[in-house]
Write a structure and sequence with these properties.
Length: about 350
């Protein structure tokens, strides 16, 4: 095995199996191993997944936040006092390296339901924001926040139309979903899109499987598994200047994923039904839980709809905003969150690089 990141030949790489999962998955995740480079610590699925199969999985099957929101009939009721600690902490870090103004063009790869864009709006950003997001269920949320949707798959070809036009490019928990054989092309696409002195922000799991074997990073459906060193090497290959790289979140060595898996197994969370037509293993407990949550959200939304008719949506949303304001943690408690704490042994790698 030749590492696609550092190009070192690994004759006897370490093999790992994927951890059990509580979502629907492609059957191939039970059939393929994860291999790890002994030199840079990069891990990868042993064989790239067919792009068409992968695209269909992410657009139709993957249980991301957007799909769960649709399945549970959960309406986007974010207000000005809604907070997402991850994106706020990311934005706090990013603004130390770039002055985000209304003239800034921002592109996000894998935007989900728009938590980062929502945080941008909270700091009065009014510039151009473009999202590459494969899950159509997320598009309405992104459009409601003023985002533009780029429907094409993110790769070098789709990046050409944005050549030298982007001030800030965000990849938060999306790079690990690309095939290892595509990673260098993705890095090239990022560099192509950025203006001179443009900033690339990337966050991925701190998935050095040798150092953190019990941290729960052998996650379905991740295809690429980064260590701090391998992410450094990737950016250095593209001659981009690394301005910051460290890790935040909980401490990897304090996790006990084996115990958590054992507890979930006893509760029946790893029972699957085979969908032969789509080569999907459907998690029985996941769909049971989604049905229960869907009924709960339906009742909640019916109650809100009644309030909307009685008092008007604007007044009800103002009341929700006031409640969230009262419930909001003090700023001192917010910044004590592990998302604001940095150490190489924590769970999420954050990188800032400049073109």
């Amino acid at each position: 095995m030749k590492c696609p990141i550092c190009s070192v030949e690994n004759n006897h790489p370490e093999l790992y199996s994927y951890s059990p999962t509580t979502i629907d998955k492609l059957k191939l995740f039970d059939e393929r191993s994860i291999v790890q480079c002994k030199s840079c610590g990069f891990g990868m699925i042993e064989k790239d997944v067919d792009p068409d199969i992968l695209q269909n999985y992410y657009t139709s099957e993957y249980s991301g936040k957007a799909k769960k929101q649709v399945e549970t009939k959960n309406t986007d009721n974010r207000t000005s006092y809604s907070t997402d600690i991850r994106s706020l902490s990311q934005l706090t870090l990013i603004r130390q390296y770039i002055d985000i103004t209304s003239d800034s063009t921002i592109v996000e790869i894998g935007a989900g339901t728009g938590n980062f864009l929502f945080s941008l709006k909270q700091v009065k950003y009014k510039g151009k924001y473009i999202a590459f997001e494969p899950q159509e269920q997320a598009h309405e949320c992104l459009r409601n926040l003023g985002g533009e949707i780029e429907k094409s798959i993110f790769n070098y070809q789709s990046a050409i139309k944005f050549k030298d036009s982007v001030d800030l490019l965000i990849m938060s928990h999306s790079l690990e979903h690309f095939n290892p054989g595509e990673i260098k092309d993705i890095g090239g696409a990022v560099k192509l899109m950025l203006k001179k002195n443009g900033i690339f922000f990337c966050e991925v799991p701190n998935a050095n499987l040798e150092l953190y074997p019990n941290a729960g990073e052998r996650v379905v459906p991740h295809l690429s598994f980064f260590s701090i060193e391998s992410l450094k090497v990737l950016l250095q290959n593209f001659e981009m200047n690394i301005e910051f790289i460290n890790a935040c979140g909980n401490k990897q060595l304090e996790k006990n994923t084996s115990q958590k898996i054992e507890e979930l197994d006893k509760k029946g969370y790893f029972i699957f039904d085979v969908d032969q037509k789509n080569n999907i293993l459907r998690n029985r407990k996941y769909h049971e839980d989604m049905a229960i949550e869907s009924n709960r959200q339906k009742k909640r939304q019916l109650f809100l709809n009644v309030l909307f008719k009685l008092f008007g949506k604007k007044m009800v949303m103002s009341l929700l905003d006031f409640i969230r304001k009262c419930q909001q943690r003090p700023q001192t408690l917010m910044i004590s969150d592990s998302q604001f704490s940095y150490d190489p042994s924590r769970e999420f790698i954050r990188l800032i690089a400049r073109k």
